[in-house]
Design goal:
19% strand; 11 helices; seven-stranded mixed β-sheet; 42% helix; alpha/beta; 272 residues; Rossmann fold
Length: 272
């Protein structure tokens, strides 16, 4: 089956830097089987699931009211059910879901252990859990901090890395080894993982934060990231970012994509 052009679909609805990243991630899911019922942990406004999946997902969970309200208003067909809830106290019985995903969400949660433990609880034995997150190379790849480091201004480089992590709301930019230990504590085993998003791709994302101010204005005035939602308006943007969408997986990347499974009940927990 031919993979659809997910880049154009995302660029029509999102700022260019975010649309590029989401398009790369969405493409991965087209080769991954997610048995139902499917839980989307951190479903947000449902845009990612709408673009990525050709069928409704069973449940989307998010702790925040505004994105859930937008999902219910604009995309009610994406999930069979949408629930406002805390990831560390999911309102579902043990062993309820056949698989779960969490796309670019876990890095925003300060204390991950209780979230992963409760996710394990609501999954069936052997159920698949798929997620992505910034990697241990994310901060190293930033262009401005790298430039400051090269001219001997490492403290300023560190300050910029801290600033960019803060505006990205990242609490975790970890290596596969750190994730392996964290997942094992919650009762998950890694089946596969890969890096994605090269140095060049991340720097396009980095500068997109600063050059995308017209999109911010458009969103504030119209609720859309483009004044005119037409592929013809994306010719230049597409030319700038498509090479990063089409690039092969790098040996080292700014992000990590994991396919894992529930290995059994986490240590110290019993099924209720």
């Amino acid at each position: 089956m031919t993979t659809p052009d997910l880049l154009t679909r995302n660029l029509l609805d999102l700022p260019a830097f975010r649309g590029l990243l989401r398009a790369v991630e969405a493409r991965f899911y087209h080769d991954i089987e997610l048995p139902g019922p499917v839980l989307d942990l951190g479903s947000g406004d449902a845009h990612f699931a709408e673009v990525t999946f050709s069928r409704p997902l069973d449940v989307g969970v998010d702790p925040w009211t505004p994105p859930l309200r937008e999902a219910r208003r604009l995309r009610p067909q994406v999930y069979r059910g949408m629930v406002q809830g805390n990831g560390s106290a999911l309102p579902f019985p043990n062993g309820h879901f056949g698989s779960a995903l969490s796309n670019s969400v876990l890095e925003h949660i300060p204390d991950l252990d209780p979230v992963l433990a409760d996710l394990n609880r609501v999954l069936r034995p052997g159920a698949r859990f798929v997620f992505c997150t910034p990697s241990n190379y994310f901060l190293d790849f930033l262009s401005i901090s790298s430039g400051l480091d090269r001219v001997g201004l490492r403290p300023l480089g560190d300050a910029y890395r801290g600033f960019f992590n803060k505006i990205s709301r990242h609490h975790h930019c970890d290596s596969p080894e750190v994730w392996r230990a964290r997942l094992a504590r919650a009762g998950f085993e890694i089946d596969r993982y890969w890096y994605y998003f090269s140095v060049g791709a991340l720097r396009a994302l980095e500068w997109g934060h600063y050059l995308g101010l017209p999109s911010v204005v458009a969103h504030a005035l119209t609720g859309r990231w483009l004044f005119w939602r037409d592929p013809a308006n994306l010719v230049l943007t597409d030319r700038l970012v498509r090479r990063f969408y089409d690039e092969p997986l790098p040996e080292r990347g700014a992000y990590l994509f994991f396919i894992t499974h529930k290995a059994g009940d986490p240590p110290g927990r019993t099924a209720g």
